[in-house]
Amino acid sequence: MKTTNRITQLFNIQYPILQAGMIWCSGWELASAVSNAGALGIIGAGSMYPEQLRTHITKCQATTNKPFAVNLPLLYPNIEEHIAIIIELGVKIVVTSAGNPKTYTSRLKAQGITVVHVIANTKFAIKCAEAGVDAIIAEGFEAGGHNGREETTTLCLIPTICAAVTIPVIAAGGIASGKQMLAAMVLGAQGVQIGSRFIASHESSAHQAFKDRVLACHEGDTQLTLKQLTPVRLIKNKFGNEIINAEANGATNEELAALLGRGRAKKGMFEGDMLEGELEVGQVAASITAIMPAADIVAEIWNEFIDTKKKISEW
């Protein structure tokens, strides 16, 4: 069953569900599978060199005729080359993050591209609206990967953001089921973005060891680290403990950056080093119990959303 709201209309999709553009986990295979299932698949460009991004976009275009997006971290060194490739290849939707939405929104929209920006507080939600973005992804403290300094939970963040702006709001952080999706929609969101659940998909480019580690997560197995540098939620492991100990001992930003080094996320999520790698995943990982095809994940979430909505209407 298809639904119609501001998000499905904006993206021309069947379900108001977005698959997050996660570094090292969301390449063309996952994005095209999610889009073919009726949701919005997103290629995570943050872990790609320009020519790799070109390849992923081209393969995604060859394997789906449905809308898909590219996630573009604005602080990425090759941002200009990425934007040029996105425009050249005719990508219709871009999700920007980790930077000022004013910097590139007007340029992208001038090319007919729909622009969505990820934020974690009301101040930047308002800046997004002023910058002319088409929708906002409001990401709560529960989310995996890079996070807001305010540590505001999704349950608190969504109604506050919805009251502050008139553009559509997409909820993210702590959402992996239809019930959680419904809760976000009741709070005012028009759609949801889901990351951690799609790590545990057949089409995810995450290493099998990382997928298995996500399934093994229990409550409390993730933590928000690097708060003074750039907050990021990780699975607790040897590397994570080193970060926590360094912070507790008063490490400077430079010392933390040196400890982080280069390629930590690739080492963990893509190459499968569960001890020394950076393992980005959300708190909701504790509820993920199986690795499934992406299409089955979309269907399960949507069917549970509809069934739960019906049950509540009968109360």
Task: Outline the structure in words.
The protein has 315 residues and is α/β, with parallel strands linked by helices. It is 42% helix and 15% strand. The longest helix has 20 residues, at 294-313. It has 14 helices and eleven strands. α2 runs parallel beside α3. The strands form two sheets. It has an eight-stranded parallel β-sheet. It has two domains: 6-206 and 288-313, Aldolase class I (TIM Barrel, Alpha-Beta Barrel); 209-284, no CATH class. The model has no long low-confidence stretch (mean pLDDT 94).
Supply database-style keywords.
315 residues; alpha/beta; TIM Barrel; 2 domains; globular
How would you briefly describe this protein structure?
This protein is an alpha/beta fold and 315 residues long.
Radius of gyration: 18 Å
Count of helical regions = 14
The CATH class name of the largest domain reads Alpha Beta
Write the element-wise H/E pattern from the N-terminal end onward.
HEHEHEHEHEHEEHEHEHHEEHHHH
Low-confidence stretches: none
Task: Indicate the overall shape.
Answer: globular
**CATH-defined topology of the largest domain:** TIM Barrel
Percent of sequence in beta strands = 5-15%
- Report the mean per-residue pLDDT as an integer: 94
Strand-helix topology:
Blueprint: H1 6-11, E1 17-19, H2 28-36, E2 41-44, H3 50-63, E3 68-73, H4 79-88, E4 93-97, H5 105-109, E5 114-119, H6 122-131, E6 135-139, E7 145-146, H7 154-164, E8 169-172, H8 178-186, E9 191-194, H9 196-199, H10 208-215, E10 222-225, E11 232-235, H11 238-248, H12 253-260, H13 264-270, H14 294-313
Parallel strand pairs: 1-9, 2-3, 3-4, 4-5, 5-6, 6-8, 8-9
Antiparallel strand pairs: 7-11, 10-11
